[in-house]
Amino acid sequence: MANNLLDRVKNIRMEKNCEVSKYDEAILKLYQNYLLLKNDDFDVVSAKKKFIDYILSIPKEDRFKILGSAQSKYIWGMKPNKETSGKILNAINEDRIVLFGEDAFLRSIVTPAQLLEQDKKHYLYACGYILDDLTAYFDATRPSRMEKIINSSFEVTQEQKERTRKVIKKIIDNKISKYNNQPIFEPNIGRKGAKKVLVIDQSYRDYSILKGCADDSTFENMLKAAIEENPEADVIIKTHPDTIGTNSIKPKCYYRNIKSHDNIYRLTEAINPLSIINYVDKVYVCSSQFGFEALMCNKEVHTFGMPFYAGWGLTIDAQKCDRRNRTRTLEELFYIAYIYMAQYINPKKNEPCEIEDAINYLIEARNEYFSNEVNT
Q: Is the Cα torsion angle 262, 266, 271, 273 positive or negative in sign?
């Protein structure tokens, strides 16, 4: 591995007028192409155990900062940069692989885009992580390990399905999502008695969009389809919370210039994701987790990008991914994505836990957060 890849890396570096960003992008692509050819089995259980040992060795208050830094043992995020290139080059020299890490679908109370006082920083602590040896789970430009497992003969037992149904019910009943600081209430948007269609906006050029086979035109087509396919319905455009956070580094979204008019309503008010999902009849989404949560709520979901949950027979898809060629149930998809591939930590106890315990932690921490917000 090492000599061959290092020679190819040197060739990339010596190309005339090779910009640093292009160099980093080429290194990442070269490395990921190698991983696909290597095609070794990935021991998910062992990888999660090693990650737990690593993450618990880092002080809770430093985890978010360190995981995205050059000193992290993992590649965090899909944006090519010198830190990622350095980790890849070290891995090539040592003839080993470096894993891709991401926040899981149940993460924390607040988002990193929210500015917090020092005594509230613990609400940012993450309780869920996902590791992958091939790419981030949201990268549809190539197969991730999660996709390979979903697409394989991997069997979810009846016992695991029953556990999954209970976990989904607990999430829905308690309105738990990736971030959990949005207020829970029943909205009142649009005309009384009219059907409601929810269109999910996202942070402009977020990597889940760039790697989710989508661009500006995807959002244009999605909104057009939502309006034309539902002429009698109210169309509600939901702004992404990271675009309105007080600490946001992504202030733009795709529908930022659209104003409410006729039967089009732009929702910028903070609201719990499941509260608004339960209010509507259909959901139109590019690559957001919102779409999977809508499936959990038994809503009709139309996808226009290629999120991890598209292409398995659960959604109405504007695109097709030829790699994804089997059908999965909601319980199977949830088990693989939320339980098998994910690892959970209870930040309060600072110890590994199961998904049920992570949900309990989020419920308790959210109650405390809401109580503190009301009393301040």
A: positive
* 287 within 8 A of 139, measured Cβ to Cβ: no
- Tokens standing for residue 182: 């949005």
Cα separation, 294 vs 301, whole angstroms: 7
DSSP alpha helices (H): ranges in 255-322?
Answer: 273-279, 290-296
pLDDT digits (tens, 9 = 90+) for 211-221: 999 999 999 99
Exposure string over 15-51, b if 16+ CB within 10 A, otherwise e: eeeeeeeebbbbbbebbbebbeeeeeebebeebbeeb
SS3 87: helix
| Cβ contacts of 198 within 8 Å, gap of 6 or more | 236, 238, 276, 277, 279, 280, 282, 283, 284, 290, 294
What secondary structure letter does DSSP report for 179? B
In 72-228, which ranges are E strands? Answer: 75-76, 100-103, 128-132, 196-200
Measured over the CA atoms of residue 336, residue 338, residue 328 and residue 139, the dihedral's sign is negative
The Cα–Cα gap between 310 and 120 comes to 36
pLDDT digits (tens, 9 = 90+) for 175-213: 999 999 999 999 999 999 999 999 999 999 899 999 999
